[in-house]
Input
Amino acid sequence: MRRFQVLWWVWPIVTLGLLGYGLHVALTVPPDADQGNIGRILYYHVPTWITMSVCFLANLLGSIVYLATRKRSPQLSLKADALAVSSAEMGVVFCFLGMATGSLWGRVAWGIWWTWDARLTATLVLWLIYLAYLVLRNVVGDGDRMRTLAAVIAIFAYCDVPLVYMTTRWWRTQHPAPVFFGGPGAGVAPNLLPALQWNIFAWLAWGVLVVGIRYTAERRKQGAEQVAAAQAIEVGALEAQ
Amino acid sequence: MTHLLACASMFPYDSRIDSVMGYHHLVVAYSLTWVVHLCYLGYVIHKRRSARSLDDK
Output
């Protein structure tokens, strides 16, 4: 427990340090030979997508664990549900920023803000699906029914994540090949790689930090709901007597 | 505004390889990323405080 409390204080400091250093490296490495300084958007754009993928994977795992344990272990299932909603929100934020930074880069590199190619369209659909997931959670209200429905939707929603990654391989798209595992012509020059790697670490650490805070908020909310439900049952029992 | 411009000066610009629009977009991309993340962090902290007060009741 004490270790967890230490981590609770150390993690934000480490994250801020990583973000500060990541920003410094991103702005001081030499400019890209082909694109000039606008290529520096890549140092925020790529980590954004990687962190989004991790968040949506956490959402998937949380949803699967919720569905698997909701009958046998209600407490574990509530923890899994809290992880699912926290990571989905963070993923939606990262997805929006990935599209926005990509659009700002595309306006300069391609001369257009947006094009309906497979990669960009699949990404927009992904963002809308997870946005709908979050809206549904708020509209349907609290309770097991909402959580079960949300978990099922989350599993279907995740199917679009690998699809987004594979679009540049399966179809000819305006979007460049992925930086990592993108095949011939993909990748980053060795002298630019540290800027990318530091920012990947930094934004992953930020994602973990914010999801952690959101997770504790959701757990508190669940605790308050359980207390309210128990009190309602007690009042009902007393009135019946 | 002066402070904002001072922040913008930390973004590299070379007129031989960069366009003015490219420079503006670079500044906007980095600023937008930070602003959105900080806003979301504010929302999450607010949510946590609300949940805590709900829990205390």
Notes: Chain A has a mean pLDDT of 89. The longest helix of chain A spans residues 193-240. The helical segments of chain A are 2-28, 42-69, 74-109, 118-140, 144-158, 160-170, 193-240.
